[in-house]
Design brief:
With 322 residues, this protein is of the alpha/beta class. The chain folds into three domains: 79 residues, no CATH class; 46 residues, no CATH class; 189 residues, Rossmann fold, CATH 3.40.50. It is 43% helix and 19% strand. The chain has 13 helices and nine strands. It has a seven-stranded mixed β-sheet, sandwiched between helices. A two-stranded antiparallel sheet has the order 1-2. Helix 9 links the parallel strand 4 and strand 5. The chain is elongated, with a radius of gyration of 22 Å. The N and C termini lie far apart (69 Å).
Length: 322
């Protein structure tokens, strides 16, 4: 017995196993594995798989069992050939190193070592998915924001919260106009590499501690021209509001706070849940407004929320009154 969903990967009726048989799903997964033997298979294969996961995810009650079936099939092993999939669940892979892999930084080259032909085919396609394209777009935007502030304010002081490897620092064009670049990054290996990314001639400043600690006891009031928060941690709303309030409080008059957030679920969310073992998060416009409302209106000269061109990210920019 099978139920059917009308939105299969190629527009055909998609078989969804009922209580007596898994044959339809098994056959679809078998076909996807067989495709990997064909040159140029990855775009069509991954598209079919993403659509399959999305359709199956709509069956909320069956979803855990369907996920288990996807992970138990050789299809899962095929997905593991992709370094982006393999390292997502690999223990000990630092978050910032994984970002290097997604943005194509040279430091990630060892993570590609030994990758099979099928894995490289997949890697070429998966890194173009919105979830990874967002990371590259965000890194580029952070660099442009640092450049713009440094150009306007020679000697600018910048603070990056939860900085990761700070890869955006290597892309700035006005590094000579930056006075100090402070980094708060709890992971010591990432913090060490981040400091090496600060442009030559710029004073690097390490802030030890956690984001929660920063929210409770900010570094010093009124001493930065730009504070960047590239990603919101998985904290309760009250903690996030405290961090945003503290970040705004350390701005100089006329300084800017940049908060980056995904604004909607990506189309490959169900695929990510299944094969990356991560549940993508996003911040709705209403949730972002509630977060930014912690900044007193009397102290805020302007507040704008700019969506990225691809519509997947929100960049919130708040400027402190001069």
């Amino acid at each position: 017995m099978f139920e059917t969903l009308p939105s299969g990967p190629d527009g055909a009726m998609l078989p969804v196993p009922g209580s007596t048989s898994w044959l339809g799903l098994q056959q679809e997964m078998d076909r996807l594995v067989e495709m990997a033997w064909e040159p140029g298979w990855a775009p069509a294969g991954l598209s079919r798989l993403v659509s399959l996961c999305t359709a199956l995810r709509a069956e909320a009650e069956l979803w855990p069992a369907l996920q288990a079936s996807l992970r138990a099939h050789p299809l899962h092993r095929l997905m593991q050939e992709d370094p982006l999939v393999f390292h997502a669940a690999a223990p000990g892979t630092p978050r910032a190193s994984y970002l290097d892999l997604a943005i194509g930084h040279a430091a990630a080259a060892p993570m590609l070592s030994g990758t099979s032909r099928a894995g490289l085919d997949l890697f070429t396609v998966t890194r173009e998915l919105p979830c990874f394209a967002m990371l590259r777009a965000r890194t580029a935007f952070l660099a442009r924001m640092a450049d713009a502030v440094a150009e306007q304010r020679p000697g600018a002081r910048i603070l990056s919260l939860s900085a990761g490897h700070l890869r955006e620092a290597a892309s700035v064009r006005h590094g000579a106009d930056i006075g100090t670049w402070a980094v708060l990054e709890p992971e010591h290996p990432a913090r060490r590499i981040a400091l090496a990314q600060v442009p030559a001639g710029v004073q690097a400043l390490t802030m030890r501690g956690s984001l929660r600690g920063f929210g409770r006891r900010p570094f010093r009031l009124g001493c930065f021209d730009l504070v960047m928060l590239p990603r919101l941690p998985k904290f309760p709303a009250a903690d996030l509001r405290q961090i945003v309030a503290a970040a705004f409080a350390v701005l100089n008059p006329g300084g800017r706070l940049l908060v980056c957030t995904p604004l909607a679920p990506v189309p490959e969310a169900a695929w990510m849940e299944t094969f990356l073992e991560t549940e993508p998060r996003w911040t709705s416009s209403r949730e972002l407004d509630a977060l930014l409302d912690v900044v007193p209106a009397a102290e805020c000269a302007s507040r704008q929320v700019v969506p990225s061109l691809d519509g997947h990210l929100n960049y919130a920019i708040l400027r402190r009154r001069g």
